[in-house]
Amino acid sequence: MRPQLLAAALASASCLASRTLAAPTPDPQSEVSPPGLEEPSQPAADEASKYFHEPGVGDQLHHYDDRFFRGQVHDAEREETLHHMIRAYLHIFRAKGIETWIAHGSLLGWWWNGKMLPWDWDVDVQVTEQTLRYLAAELNGTRHKYASDDGAVRREYLLDVNPHAVERERGDGMNVIDARWVDVRNGLFVDITALSETHPDVSPGLLSCKNFHSYRTEDLYPMRESVYEGVPVLIPYAYDHILAEEYESKALFVTEYEGYVVSPSGRVLLTFSHRWDPAHREWMRTGGEQVPQELVGPPRPHIPQSVQTRSTAPGLANIMRLVRGS
Q1: What does the pLDDT look like over 114-126, one tens digit per residue?
Q2: For the chain, give me the number of helices (H) and strands (E)?
Q3: Which of 28, 126, 235, 283 is most solvent-facing, going by the fewest CB within 10 Å?
Q4: Are the C-beta atoms of residues 5 and 225 closer than 8 Å to each other?
Q5: pLDDT band with cut points at 50, 70 and 90 for residue 317
Q6: Contact of 16 with 114, CB cutoff 8 Å
Q7: CA triplet 29, 124, 236: central angle to 5 degrees?
Q8: Taking the complete model, does pTM exceed 0.85, yes or no?
Q9: Residue 35 near residue 143, CB atoms below 8 Å
Q10: CA-based angle 77:81:83, to the nearest 5?
């Protein structure tokens, strides 16, 4: 049985819950269609255990699904793609009665203004292990059509469940992402990870993903109702505690960020900065240069920027540095 949903977020986020909930319109022809006859070719099996592949390494190429990669997109197209992609995902899952909620950097963006962080390259969502098993059994490989409210934007997304998702331990670390919601036009995606009670004998009520993130049941439930990118969304109950534990409490109030983009070799290609504008409730870019084309490197395990552990990079530190309060 699902925990009862609360009607609104805490006072600090009540402005989000009070907005009008605008849902995207499913395509009237078919909301779900089977995979097409002409599937994109699979990448070469450079690493036998890895399922999801990316066209290269580095902060940008690492956020495309290689099967649908047609070249890097500009910032405006990236933001537009992610905006419609998460709206479609949240609306379609809710219409089907499938529980899911935003996490990591996406949850941090919600904390600030109910939107994605403008420097983020993907969206992170979570589900329970039970929901993941349902997706694998009933919806794996299905394509979902979407139309924006005005009908001007029409997209198609692939829901693809990693066959290694049945393994709830980290293993070799090559398959920490359990599923993807992929824009078939350009390969940008939503990362879906499941939470499992992997050690109920010694840690009952502790739910973990395959990348060392753990949550107590009481921190997640009951879920809160709010709004993200203009559509209804579920938010973990103790969202402030979860964010402070993952990013440190200063990520909830520091109003200037400086980020950087690195090449596969580790060379910094771009530095940029954003400042929070309280009057407009937006992150405003205050500096930066055009990102040079990156070289395609060998595949490596895909770990979302906002999910990486301290053995790779601490939370958001791999994409941003706190300018004030650091």
Answers
A1: 999 998 888 999 9
A2: 6, 15
A3: 28
A4: yes
A5: very low
A6: yes
A7: 100
A8: no
A9: yes
A10: 120
